Amino acid sequence: MSKEDSALGYEFEDELKEIFKKIQAKHPFYWHQFPDSKAARGFISSQPSDFLVKGPTTPVMLFEAKASVKKKSLASCAKSAILPAQIGHHKKFHRAGGKTLFIFYGQLENRVEVWDGKYVTDCISDNSRMNILGGGHLLASCDYFKLEDMLLNFFLEN
User: Fold this and answer.
1) Model confidence, pTM
2) 76: which of 1, 20, 69, 129 is 20 to 30 A away, CA to CA?
3) Burial of 74 (0-12, 13-18, 19+ CB in 10 A)
4) What's the pLDDT score for residue 44?
């Protein structure tokens, strides 16, 4: 991923934090942000994800945020955007019965996608192409300006 993508990714994480705070203030919702190992310059080991989240009807989930200035979908950049250590953490979490999600913001089309993490990591591990159509692996998608509503519905109505 480019420096621009990394900067956009940090901005996107900050936006997610603000949305999570709003949701938690009004609803039974829990979130925790893991410290960023890259920002800590190696003083802490790689973290499993950006966030740990739990809604009233959803299991505890690892929630990883990605963003790109030029790519339209996580399907077009997952292999370069998701680090091997992240894939390993997610696969271990899946093996233990956990669920993970990847949320992607594509600035080019101002779209947000939520993907099933097991599907994403399996595709990367198997070196197979992610399918944006069908299969139910793309769990939600919306315009960036509807992100808060999408997350509210996703965590409180699923």
Assistant:
1) 0.92
2) 20
3) buried
4) 66
